[in-house]
Specification:
The chain is an alpha/beta fold. The protein has seven helices and eight strands; from the N terminus they run H-E-H-H-E-H-E-H-E-H-E-E-E-H-E. It has a single domain, classed as 3-Layer(aba) Sandwich (Rossmann fold), CATH 3.40.50.11350. The termini are far apart.
Length: 159
Amino acid sequence: MTLVSGKGVKDSFWTISDLDTYITIQIRRTDFVKDYAHMINSVSENYLQSAIKVYAETFLSAVFVVVSDDIEWCEQNLPRIAKQKYYFSTDNSACEDFSLMVHANHSIVTAGSSFGWWGAYLANGHATYFPNWLKNGRWGALKLKVEDFYLPRWTLIPR
């Protein structure tokens, strides 16, 4: 499998074997930890560690491709959270990052990001997610049912 890649990861992908299994981690942080902290439980380190472990133990050659609106946080924290091989997508447009997610084998979905959800859905591989990302189960007056939001074959991992 060859990933369509953007400027930040392109050179690295030229050296990765087609035998690797690509897992995208899409982390939305900036507005979730600032503007919406009263409504959203943002992604936890425990969830990331557990989700990464699921794929690292399942696939012999797992490669984690990280796309985020806070790539600096990811670069500083992910290697500490779980020692794996990461490629951080930097200086890419949202379309390039979306292409990376759609062309991956599997996905780690984080709190309520429709961008990450659609990337995982269109990748059509396995995905992990965490429950209760909405505080009080609501987005304003809209109440969401988890079973309507995540595919039955996706794996819930506690936050």
